[in-house]
Amino acid sequence: MTLSESGAAPAGEVVLEAVGLTKHFPVRGRLRDLFSRTPAVVHAVDDVSFALRRGRVTALVGESGSGKSTVARLLAQLHPRTAGDIRLHGTSTRVRGGRRFRSYVRRVQLILQDPFASLNPVHTVRYHLTRPLRIHGTAGRGAEELERALADLLTRVSLTPPERYLDAFPHELSGGQRQRVAIARALGADPEVLLADEPVSMLDVSIRLGVLNLLQDLKDRLDLAILYITHDIASARYFADETIVMYAGRMVEGGDSETVTQNPAHPYTRLLTDSAPDPERITGALSGADAARADRGGGEPPSLISPPAGCRFHPRCPHAMRRCVADAPPRLTVGDRPGHWTACWLYDPATVAADPPGSAAPDADPTVPPPPAFAGRADTGPREEAR
Amino acid sequence: MLEIRGLRVDYGLGDQAVRAVHDVDLTLHRGEVLGLAGESGSGKSTLAYGLTRLLPPPGVVAGGQVLHHRTDGPPVDVLALTPAQLRAYRWAETSIVFQGAMNSLNPVHKVSTQLHDVIRAHEPDSTRAGRRARARDLLRLVGISADRLDSYPHQLSGGMRQRVMIAMALALEPQVVIMDEPTTALDVVMQRQILGQLAELRRKLGFAVLFITHDLSLLVEFSDRIAIMYGGRIVEEAPAAQLYGRALHPYTDGLLHSFPALHGPRRELTGIPGSPPDLRAMPTGCAFHPRCPRAFAPCAGELPPLGPPADDDPRRAVACWLHPAGATAPGRPIPTAEPTDHP
Q1: Which fold has domain A14-26+40-246?
Q2: Could you tell me if residue B251 is inside a domain?
């Protein structure tokens, strides 16, 4: 089998693009809903746009229920989208099964979260890997070439010697090895894009790093575009070139990973980074003050059947203004680094001037320091200084 | 408070038995948070189930003692209690918040019914109104409004269900709360809220917590002391800050360099090569030596004892030939480049 012919295409070229991607799932209605005009829907994903580039990892970070997995499924064309567009090399694609779906998944492969569930327990590794090779016509001719292709796949995910794993059943493998088989299976199609939906969250901490390093290595060698979906924003910092944060079905912030994790602009991203475990804050840090701070960002993600008007984070936001309740914020540039944007009215000078931040906050607290946005945004240093 | 002496837990009987926990000694002091970390299969959950006698078959406690020191009266050996004594002991003195606790609520009963059950089982004389008031207080304690009492579990979010479980664990004001991966299924924001609340409740009520998780970064921040388990044994035990600052056992060091840090400078991540040992075929000597980057001659041959290292703080303990115990150290050849300064 051949590797992707990456020499022809320039690095960083957009491979797969989501434009205004939207997915609403219908809710099974009650009888009285039959008579209402607007059927109830879950707004799982609303207006999501981003691009996956060759040889780059894009992380999609969010809580469970933020719609990040739905985005992966939409991109894999497992769900039909409600609105928006998916462009593969600039061409709009909409496939529903059949031959066209097959040629689409040859180029875009999905890796699932749970390797314990995504491999069939009654089949061997050989079976799992032979199928994609056969289906996508990369098996070569004859038993000998197939055997070589299989060994090649296993070597590529560092399961060596291949003979030891080929005839093993999934239950004979550890979690990390199983996830490697799942990755090898995705590589069997020789794809251009890997959609990795929480590929390591089911694995042990000591194993995670190995699998992430493997993905990174594959990205470099095969020039793959990778979408890395995770709830662990710290791993996005290390593994992804670009990070996008989602909240309640919308994108709230994006930019290069180091900027987003070290100088988060959106109040939600800040809540997320403040909540991540931090060993530097050794014991006793979970004191009263800290608990109070955690409470302030408290509350829970909103119902997606009737999401809040305006910014979806406003019921939890300590800086909410009147405009946040009314209008959904557009993407605004933060201005500290090129490409760093956020969907937050705090970064629109006209809005902030008209209305003090926090005026519409659920429990306005005068002691909350203003966000760096209007405390002189040009000189936002590292977060350590801001604390 | 709780003293575990030489606890051994097997799965299966006779020749087929697989030893999951080997001679573990562990002490939980009054009012402290003791973190227990390790990979899956290291025996940390088995230890927790063993010491509460909740092991499902074929798990068997093969030996050892679990002494519960009460404020009044002599210590009790939990492993020797009669079934009736055990029923009274459980939950009233030691309660557990299980892994995936949000699924351990009964879906067909209201939250109030389940809270009332706990109280009624242990305090049969309590009145209905008294129980209701108590349940109300408990929910308020964990930050849920009392009008949620008559909700069914599916009407609550994951975080709220978890808090109901914590409320239930605190219902009888136990001295010891064992938490087995209590926040693994939750988001980071919710995790921090719940842990913050737990820290506050602990200050208010003064119970001790045995906190079991594989997320070492969380433990370092949340617990007073940390014990690391590997292959059914405790390999290192130290105050949290010391463990984070200077891990002695190479396994601990590997764990600490496995998770990416969000704050501060980017650290190099090394991880741990290989995979966890198979309990049916444990390596000889130190169980970690096949994966250990610094293994040397004695590691494969002999099991290092857990004890205070000669070259460090006596408050900590480690089982590694790189840091042999002070007085009892056998005359082992120490490697020429004794690595005492970890990155």
Answers
A1: Rossmann fold (3.40.50)
A2: yes
Tokens read off for B279: 């309990």
B254 interaction partners in chain A (CB closer than 8 Å): 206
CB–CB contact A283 B259 (8 Å): no
pLDDT (tens digit, 9 = 90+) per residue, A12-43? 789 999 999 999 988 776 666 566 666 778 88
Q: What ipTM does the predicted assembly reach?
A: 0.73
Is B131 a member of any domain? no
Three-class DSSP category at B206 = coil
Per-domain residue ranges of chain A: 14-26+40-246, 311-331+349-387
Nearest CA in chain A to B270: A209
| CATH assignment of the domain containing B242 | 3.40.50.300
pLDDT digits 0-9 by tens, A186-238: 999 889 999 999 888 878 777 888 888 899 989 998 999 999 999 888 889 88
State in Å, rounded, how far the first CA of chain B is from the last one: 35
Q: Look at residue B142 and tell me if it is in a domain.
A: no
Chain B interface, mutation test: which of A286, A290, A300, A387, most B Cβ atoms within 10 Å?
A286
Q: Which two tokens stand for residue A149?
A: 């292709």
Helices (H), chain A: 68-75, 98-107, 125-135, 142-156, 162-166, 175-187, 205-222, 233-239, 257-262, 267-275, 288-296, 322-326, 349-354, 383-386
| Interface mutation vs chain A, best among B42, B184, B188, most A CBs within 10 Å | B188
Q: Which residue range(s) make up the domain with B300?
A: 1-93+174-343
Q: Look up the pTM and report it.
A: 0.79
Question: Contact B175/B145 with Cβ under 8 angstroms?
Answer: no
Q: Which residues contact B188 (CB under 8 A, 6 or more apart)?
A: A63, A231, A232, A233, A272, A275, A276, A277
A218 token code pair: 């594959």
A279 to B220: CB separation less than 8 angstroms, yes or no: yes
What's the structural domain count of chain B? 1
Sheet with A225-230, side-by-side order of all strands: A108-111, A193-197, A225-230, A57-61, A242-247, A250-256, A341-342, A332-333
Instruction: For residue B145, tell me if it sits in a domain.
Output: no
